Amino acid sequence: MFLERILNDHEKIKRAEEIYYRRNHRNIAMGNRGIEPRRQRTYLGSKILLEMLILVILAVTVFAVKNRDYIFTQNFLQSISKYNINLSEKFDFIMAYLKEDQETEGEGIFVNNQPAEENQPVIEKTEEPQSLAPQEQAPAPVQENPNPFIKPIEGVVTSGFGARESVYQNVTGNHTGVDIGADSGTQIKASMTGTVTQVSSEGDYGNHIRITKDNVTTLYAHCQDIFVAEGQEITQGQVIATVGSTGNSTGPHLHFEIRVDDTPINPAEKIDF
Predict the structure, then answer these.
(1) Annotation: CATH topology of 156-269
(2) Would you kindly state where each structural domain of the chain is located, as residue ranges?
(3) 81-119 residues labelled b (16+ CB within 10 A) or e (exposed)
(4) pLDDT at 13
(5) Considering the chain, what is the average pLDDT of its residues?
(6) Is the pLDDT of residue 108 over 60?
(7) What is the pTM of this model?
(8) What is the CB neighbour count within 10 angstroms for residue 179?
């Protein structure tokens, strides 16, 4: 009270301002001291939670990688289906990534899922020989006809092989072949494969053909038309002539012979007429 009475008005105002200023700065300082520790504690707690979350994610990732053969099986997915968690959609991307990573392990760094040592030879895969395509396969060997002779024409045997009697004077008693009756112009087929060694119209045979293979010869006589020439290669069943009645003949027919070393044999022993 005494001091206030001796202070003038100007000093009182100045003193009041000082008191107000000190009080305001003290409140601000106290407020700052109370807020900053609170902010630091909040930031520290968030950082710890973030680090814990990262550690949990890393642990789960490591576990998933080590146990991926089990985690992505149907048994595991069914065991956690009661939690209504659709892991198949969640891990589609992870599975694709792991498969790609597993496929690329053998390139450069890993061999058979093991680290490749330095200077270790890398075994290269060799392509297996491919089998020939169907069009490139060797053709199957052609099997020869087990029967070397076939019937030269279809018809009835009118005169057999060997001794015979006839009312015709121009017919010999020893028949060296068989006569097969047929209409004029009937096609004659080669009874066996061979080479044409004779085409002639002279003698009692009239127009006739000889086809030879090794020591065997077939003869076709009394032909009307001949379609082959000497030296020509003939296949069994090929049309070579037509039935006629040329030479010493009593009517349209084929005189057919088989000769072995130029000796006539009975064609009926080789062909079922």
Answers:
(1) Glucose Permease (Domain IIA) (2.70.70)
(2) 2-65, 156-269
(3) eeeeeeeeeebeebeeeeeeeeeeeeeeeebeeeeeeee
(4) 81
(5) 76
(6) no
(7) 0.47
(8) 24
